[in-house]
Specification:
The structure holds two protein chains of two kinds. Chain A contains six helices and eight strands; from the N terminus they run H-E-E-H-E-E-H-H-E-E-H-E-E-H. By secondary structure, chain A is an alpha+beta fold. In chain A, strand 7 (about 165-175) and strand 8 form a beta hairpin. The radius of gyration of chain A is 16 Å and the shape is globular. Chain B is of the alpha+beta class. In chain B, about 20% of the residues lie in helices and about 35% in strands. The two termini of chain B are about 20 Å apart. Classes of the chains: A alpha+beta, B alpha+beta.
Chain lengths: ~200, ~160
């Protein structure tokens, strides 16, 4: 299995990842709508390959407080996945899910665990589509959630990407219900998993 | 008041009083501030990974603790700092999540801090203060004029080391 870096990534491969991102985000939106029992729309996801120093700004600044849900992936594809949502959007989402108007700046323990579940369902839907398209087994680990500065949360996937190259692949998804929720997916397959994904899709590398 | 110089992720820069230098949202990465207290010339590096020698794709010098610190020393000395007077303060190296997916990536924050200390010791640069580890992100601002390393974190009052 050949190893490739993101720098050397062909356009074709980039398109594949983009399409996987599209489908995954679509699935995640459906899951979100089912969970919230309301209509949720999604804008076409934007897939971008960014330099480390650009990612904070892309998300509205390194110091913007966000909720980050992070899971490990095992199976045929190994690596990790992260879903990020701006804090106010996360509060809105959780409030709606629990049927309460959330007060205060901080998350209660209940809201925190509901948010973890939201992240679990969204990333699960994303990974399911990845698994069914590629026909590869993907098993997510128990999710972990943190609410902190975007830059600090992003340091985790950035470091994982950093072991491979100097850029990070970001999938930005806008959800709409009553308000616009900017969500970000970051899929971080291990180096050998890239090749497996591509081979499974019949693309030679 | 001088201007504020911004350092990104896997980046470094030199800073001379009265200017200050900052890096936003350090997570598992480590921020290393160097200063010559006499000339008040300093600098800041934002490293991501501990060791450039274990990684094939290692041309990005500021990304690694070993090469990044060496380069920062080189640049502050070139700017006029005395190599033998340099002192350091460090911050960051948090573990942002309870788990980190790959074994290799486990404790990367801690390993970044260890590698930073090792490199500074090897270069005989004393560490005057540190605020490392734990589980939260930090924004740091370094003032070469006073040597203050100001730290901001979510839900905490600003403090300095």
């Amino acid at each position: 299995m050949g190893e490739i870096s993101l720098e050397e990534m062909s356009n074709e491969y980039f398109d594949v990842l983009k399409e996987l991102g599209n489908i995954g985000a679509g699935n995640a939106t459906t899951a979100l709508a089912q969970m919230m029992q309301c209509k949720v729309d999604m804008a076409v996801p934007q897939v971008r390959l960014l330099e480390f120093k650009e990612i904070g700004e892309t998300m509205g600044g390194e110091e913007l407080v966000m909720a980050g849900i992070y899971l490990g992936i095992e199976g045929d594809i190994t690596g990790s996945i992260m879903f990020l949502l701006e804090k106010q959007a996360a509060k809105h989402l959780v409030g709606k899910l629990m049927g309460i108007e959330s007060e205060g700046e901080e998350f209660t323990e209940m809201e925190f665990s509901a948010l973890k579940e939201v992240g679990n369902i969204i990333t699960g839907a994303y990974l399911n589509s990845l698994s069914s398209i590629t026909n590869l087994a993907v098993y997510p680990s128990v999710p972990d959630l943190t609410v902190d500065m975007a830059g600090a949360i992003l340091s985790v996937p950035a470091i994982e990407f950093g072991a491979l190259g100097d850029r990070i692949l970001l999938i930005q998804t806008q959800f709409f219900d009553e308000m616009v929720l900017d969500g970000y997916f970051i899929l971080i397959p291990d180096l050998e998993s890239y090749g497996r994904i591509l081979s499974a899709l019949g693309i030679s590398i | 008041m001088g201007k504020e110089i911004k350092v990104g992720m896997a980046d470094l820069n030199v800073c001379v009083s009265p200017d200050s230098i900052t890096t936003l949202g350090l997570g598992s990465c480590v921020g290393i501030a160097l200063r010559d207290p006499i000339t008040k010339i300093g600098g800041l590096a934002h490293i991501m990974l501990p060791d450039s020698t274990t990684i094939r794709n290692n041309s990005n010098i500021p990304k690694f603790a070993d090469t990044g610190i060496e380069e920062l020393v080189k640049q502050v000395v070139r700017r006029g700092a005395d190599r033998n007077r340099l002192v350091a303060k460090i911050a960051g190296g948090a573990q942002m999540f309870g788990f980190q997916s790959k074994s290799e990536m486990v404790r990367v924050g801690e390993r970044n801090v260890e590698a930073t200390k090792k490199k500074l010791a090897q270069l005989r640069i004393p560490i005057l203060a540190e605020d490392t580890g734990k589980n939260f992100g930090r924004t740091v601002i370094f003032y070469p004029e006073t040597g203050d390393f100001v730290i901001r974190a979510v839900g905490k009052a600003e403090y300095k080391i």
